[in-house]
Amino acid sequence: MSDKLKQCREQIDALDEALLKIVNQRAALAQQIGHLKEGGVVLRPEREAQVLRRLQDANQGPLSNVAIAALFTEVMSQCRALEAPLSVAYLGPEGTFTEAAALKRFGSAVQGVSCATIDDVFRAVESGEVQYGVVPVENSTEGAIGRTLDLLLQSTLQVCGEVMLPIHQCLLAQQCDVSQIQSVYSHPQSLGQCQGWLNVNLPAAARIPVSSNAEAARLAAGHVNCAAIAGAQAAGHFGLNVCVENIEDDARNTTRFLVLGKQQVAASGEDKTSMVLSATNRPGAVHDLLASLAKYDVSMTKFESRPSRSGLWEYVFYVDIEGHQTDEKVVLALAELKQSAAFMKILGSYPLAV
Ligand SMILES: O=C(O)C(=O)C[C@]1(C(=O)O)C=C[C@@H](O)C=C1
């Protein structure tokens, strides 16, 4: 070993000891805070977002802000676990992007509960079996996840947070001779995100939609001439090879997930509010809804219409705005909006994804 290498490792050892002491001091403070909360809710999304943003603002590298967020999310996850255990349901099975989103938001010190359907995630949170749930809500290439939107309308749960996860799809198979692949399994959303790649590279292969990407990988593991489209993490779970990486048609392909819970999250300073609206049946009604937002300078980040399921050709609108429902201009805009809407339900205010 060269002298320089030895020296660097000695310095790392010394720093690790200092880090060890400091993270344990931090953990002890979190424990104290836990006692002060006395039966209160342990997870404080607004505080966690503020901690991450402050550190990202102060970060001078060489670690990236993405790395800093991942590192300190894990630190907070371990500290939080000393205050109280936390359970989180997600749309499973293990190895799906939703599991990755839950991990990204909550870190590893939580009890993850895999659910077979989006409905089951809602039920698990509603019944109190778990404290939080994570479900996909929209993808940048394929659009809304209708089932999540429909359940948000019916449910009493609050949206407590959002997670943005860059989605990189891979072709997984037992053998990587692409000319031998006859069928490709995947979730319909993932097949949609890769249709351009499939048209060019596997035009003759059957595209078989299944319930999840993990299920696709499980099926591909049983047939030598079949492949799955899934995240690279699924390859390890099912003993498959990653034959081709990044086969999504848009390199910026991102899925947005929602964190569901029962708490009203306090303002963090950079927040979003989600709601569902319906307009009265008269000319200009939708315009009036949006005019209330414009009047108070509230930006809209999403507008999505869905059948209302209560009348033929009737629609509800899913709207996200910038700001917390307790912010002054949001309070004014929402009060006016409520006057012109036939129906209005606030789904929750929560910190912007860090
Ligand atoms: O500040 C708190 O309320 C804490 O419990 C500490 C802490 C942290 O580790 O920083 C942990 C859990 C909360 O969700 C927020 C922050």
Automatic annotation (TrEMBL):
Domain of life assignment: Bacteria
GO MF assignments: chorismate mutase activity; prephenate dehydratase activity
Site for Essential for prephenate dehydratase activity, residues: 255
Domain Prephenate dehydratase: 87-262
Entry keywords, A to Z: Amino-acid biosynthesis, Aromatic amino acid biosynthesis, Cytoplasm, Isomerase, Lyase, Multifunctional enzyme, Phenylalanine biosynthesis
Pfam families assigned to the protein according to its UniProt record, in alphabetical order: ACT, CM_2, PDT
All residue ranges annotated as the ACT domain in the record: 274-351
Stored SMART domains: CM_2
GO terms (BP aspect): chorismate metabolic process; L-phenylalanine biosynthetic process
A GO CC term attached to the entry: cytoplasm
EC number(s) recorded for this UniProt protein: 4.2.1.51, 5.4.99.5
Presence of keyword Isomerase: yes
Localization per Swiss-Prot or TrEMBL: Cytoplasm
Catalysed reactions, as listed in the record: chorismate = prephenate; prephenate + H(+) = 3-phenylpyruvate + CO2 + H2O
Pathway assigned in UniProt: Metabolic intermediate biosynthesis; prephenate biosynthesis; prephenate from chorismate: step 1/1; Amino-acid biosynthesis; L-phenylalanine biosynthesis; phenylpyruvate from prephenate: step 1/1
Biological role stated in the UniProt entry: Catalyzes the Claisen rearrangement of chorismate to prephenate and the decarboxylation/dehydration of prephenate to phenylpyruvate.
Protein name, as recorded: Bifunctional chorismate mutase/prephenate dehydratase
